[in-house]
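[step 3/7] fold_predict: job queued, chain A
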Amino acid sequence: MPSPRRRPLIVPVLLIAGAVLAARPAASDPGGAADSTAAQVARLYADAAVATRQYEDGRRAAEGQRALARHYEALLDRQRSEIAVLHEDLGRIARAQYRDGGGLPVAAQIVLAGSPEELMRGQHVFSQANLALDNAIDKNRRAERRLAADEAKAAAAWQDLEKRRGELAALKQTIEAKLEEARSRLQGEADASALAGSCRGAVRLEQPPATATRGWVAPVETYELSAGFGSGGDRWANRHTGQDFAVPIGTPVRSVGDGRVAAVSCGGAFGVQVLVEHPGGYYTQYAHLASVAVDEGERVGAGQWIGQSGTTGNSTGPHLHFEVRVTPELGSGVDPVPWLAARGVNL
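[step 4/7] structure written:
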């Protein structure tokens, strides 16, 4: 079972995305409330995908910030050690001066000196010791200033890290909350259509940017496989006739290949569904949908969004029921997994 694929969140874009999301107007499709909800879910999915990519990029950036903060901590540890050594040096110099008479007044040194040469040597040693002491004190003060500055950098780095993490989590949570609310409305409208056995018409979704394909694609982009072809269970009269893809309500559903929409229907065990006829005599079915984005007889291309997943009909939870058939009728199905694999799509 493949795990959901994730795409790479740049932190500066986060706030822009959030602002765009907040300012974005509601959909104004002529189809009415159902169209508006379906289009809103599709847009929120796109926003969620952007937010997820930004979140992942931001998480990696946060890890880099964490590494920087740890680097500062390591520098601080080294600087603390250097300052401790400097303190030892200062103590050693002071002790040496005391032993060598560095603390005596000049007059006392003259009286005690045995000769002018001895006096000069004493003065030279004394000057060198004072110079070393001054240098050590100055070095110690510079190290302490660097230590204080780097401590401030380390603290700022940790604060920036926590701020970024909070912004990323808040944006992602806001989008997910809006998406969950829209999903609930979309499913409610789909249930009403399925119960009435009357479809509301195509919801024209804004299609994703065109990308080069191999001619065939998986029916959903991010998924987990659930019930497989031929499996048994209380939900089916005989055996499972297709492959289920566990996806949230409102997930864009794609035509797996080029073809023509053979049927769009609502009601019954499959709920809201689309049937696509492909060259070569095969048909693919997309069932338990929450909305439909195509009309019967319409030409579709590989990867084109033809609807949104849901849980209409005989369904125990959100998923896409996908079938491959040799006729339009139920009962002529073949296993979708090897069928897609033979066309270069490995689930």
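[step 5/7] annotate
Confidence is low (pLDDT under 50) at residues 1-35.
Residues 282 and 326 are 5 Å apart (CA to CA).
exit 0
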